[in-house]
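Entry 14. Structure prediction run on the chain below.
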Amino acid sequence: MTSIDFAAAQQRVLNCRQARALALRSRAQARRSKYALEFSGRLPFPLNAWTQTGIEAWDTIKGRDGTRPAFRVGQVDAELLDEELLELLKSQVGEALKYFGSHLRDEWSSEILLVLRAALFKLSIWDHNTSYGAALQNIRYTDARQSGPLLSTPTRWQKACYGALSVGGRYAWDKWNAWLADQEGNYEQSSPSIQALSRISSAVSTIHSIAALSSFIVFLVNGRYRTLLDRILRLRLASPANHLSRQVSFEYLNRQLVWHAFTEFLLFLLPLVGITRWRRWLSRAWRKAKALVKRVDEEVDKIPDGELSFLPDRTCAICYQDQNPTSTAENELLAVSGASGGVVGSAQTDITNPYEMVPCGCTYCFVCAISRLEAADGEGWTCLRCGLLVKECRPWAGDVLAPSMMPRTKKNVSFSDEDDNNSEKGT
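Output returned:
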């Protein structure tokens, strides 16, 4: 017998057992109903209806159908796992958005939760009829309106209503409460209409909380509908297999512990490795890759093609970059110069105590050049004027006039004896 035939035979045996158990439960229910009718029929009018309702409720609670455990602990754990997953994704999105501004995470928190809940609903319940937490517990959503030995999947309108209320309904309710809080938080006294809407919202929230508590108490009794929304839409979490193991698997917990230890080790190791050095190494590798792709011969006497090669000679490119971190193009430079009265060439960006880089010879301020070379930590720094990689600097000798070497003229002084004799004869 092949594996396919064996699986089919097992499924037929399972279906027969389920049909036999259903028939036995139906006969037992009919027998109990018959006895209940006979007993309640002997009572007067007000008591017979109450007795019939009470007996049916008691049978539902104590019978196998009523207390048939739909794995209550697993259903509650599935909800907790879904909430933990949502909080984890929210924190990761917040960490990613902090580089674009710390205010984005607070101002758009409701929209972030809306997008995350919608994505999780589409990828889990809409596509696979189960959430990620329920999948870990080996349970999935079924249509409780269908009675039969086999579980039926929920319809599309049930899933659509579930997504609209659980995703869109929460977002709308949060925005409504936020709007009411803004209206009531002003210094002026709120209008009577706002106060009435606030009282209505509080009453609706209280009624929903009471209904949710009542539904959860009933869930603890029979384990059928975990939330109030599941009870309204008749969606039930159940295991696809009849024999469900109640042993908790620690496989995912072990993975989480290993991953947590690995991330802690990385956070301890990264400061020791040095992020700035790796960043400089990657940027230098990227520049070399671009040079190989473009096939440009790097020569010392090539035309300057640095980031700020268009600046005049008297301007320190490092000072200009520190004061204007966003404007690097020539047209932006002209616009900034015209708007601010001439930033380029002013005393704030002029070179003081000039030093030239080796080997390109571009001049910068002494403090600027030393600070950039010291920050490079011996790996080299890209010149802003010519784009070459420089590692050292020296004092600029462009304004020092070397003395010209003029030939020396000899001056000879001699005294003649004849002049002395003539002077003696005259005396």
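DSSP finds 15 helices and seven strands in the chain.
Filed with the rest of this week's runs.
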